[in-house]
Amino acid sequence: YFVNRQSKKIFTWYEQETSTNELFNGRLHLVENHPEFGRASVNLTAIRESDQGWYHCQVSFPNRSPSVRNNGTAYHLAVQGGSLIRIPPVNQTIQEGQTAFFHCVMKYPDNSQASWYKDGVLLQEVQDLVRRSYMGPDGSLSIDPTMMSDLGEYECKVRNSEGELQTAKAFLNIQYKAKVIYAPPEVYLPYGQPAVLDCHFRANPPLKNLRWEKDGLLFDSYNVPGVFYKMNGSLFFAKVDENHAGSYTCTPYNDLGTDGPSPVISVIVLRPPIFSVTPK
């Protein structure tokens, strides 16, 4: 199955695998599990003025001769509006450190002005981000290098000299190795009481595994009575005793790997105060 636009193949679907023309990459997808549409229906997002034209879907049979028969349906797409933005931004997913690029090509750059917002805040007010970003003369935005804090919704606003305004939004998903973001040098646990030892991390894609070490050796809570893993990877001590004191490190992992172990966390077990001399 494939989709043609003005005699050019822009989308193919064969044995559950899809491929998309560069101009439609990230914007053209199969419509899945929708009762009102056929299995070969597609969804086009982030419409551009240049998308206007005739589209033709056709079924082919690679193992038959001839492979293509006179079948399929033609559709005409008329794009209305778009008076100020010629090419809007598109959602994208990249890894931390790579360059992010958002189109916001102004139709009339000579009498229009573009501005960018992140999560509703003017980009110039996001100090950490503005130092790594650049807006081209056509209104497009690039961020290099990207950081995990750049994840969010970006909005381009174009206003012309007559006061007309057009906006377009796209989401930037930043993926990175699982990393520890904070580790206290010392943690005090109360003797004889329940307690939790946390590993403060971030991960995108989500966490898959978390490894604890104690005094340089693997700490497996399944082999230590009274110690359990919580859903977020923290260690839960049902009843703290002196055997739980030591030097701990945690290492989070996701599909991209790990950024390394945490600094050493010294766990100190504190007993409740007692009288050294009792009154007479």
N→C terminal distance: 95 Å
Order of helices and strands: EEEEEEEEEEEEEHEEEEEEEEEEEEE
In what range is the share of β-strand residues?
A: over 45%
Q: pLDDT average, as an integer?
A: 87
CATH homolog superfamily of the largest domain? Immunoglobulins
Quantity of strands, as a count: 26
- Largest β-sheet summary: 6 strands, mixed
CATH topology of the largest domain: Immunoglobulin-like
What does this structure look like?
With 280 residues, the protein is mostly beta strands. The protein folds into three domains: 2-77, Immunoglobulin-like, CATH 2.60.40; 85-175, Sandwich (Immunoglobulin-like); 183-270, Immunoglobulin-like (Sandwich). Helices cover 1% and strands 45% of the residues. It contains one helix and 26 strands. A hairpin with a 5-residue loop joins β23 and β24 (235-237). The relative contact order is 0.11.
Features:
Immunoglobulin-like, mainly beta, 1% helix, 26 strands, elongated, five-stranded antiparallel sheet, 280 residues, six-stranded mixed sheet, 1 helix, 3 domains, 45% strand
Short description:
Keywords: Immunoglobulin domain. It contains one helix and 26 strands.
Annotate the secondary structure layout.
Elements: E1 2-5, E2 8-14, E3 17-20, E4 28-30, E5 42-44, E6 53-58, E7 73-77, E8 85-87, E9 92-95, E10 100-102, E11 105-106, E12 112-118, E13 121-122, H1 127-130, E14 133-135, E15 141-143, E16 152-160, E17 165-182, E18 186-190, E19 195-197, E20 200-204, E21 209-214, E22 217-218, E23 227-229, E24 235-237, E25 246-253, E26 265-270
Parallel strand pairs: 9-17, 18-26
Antiparallel strand pairs: 1-2, 1-6, 2-3, 4-5, 6-7, 8-11, 10-15, 12-13, 12-16, 14-15, 16-17, 17-20, 19-24, 21-22, 21-25, 23-24, 25-26
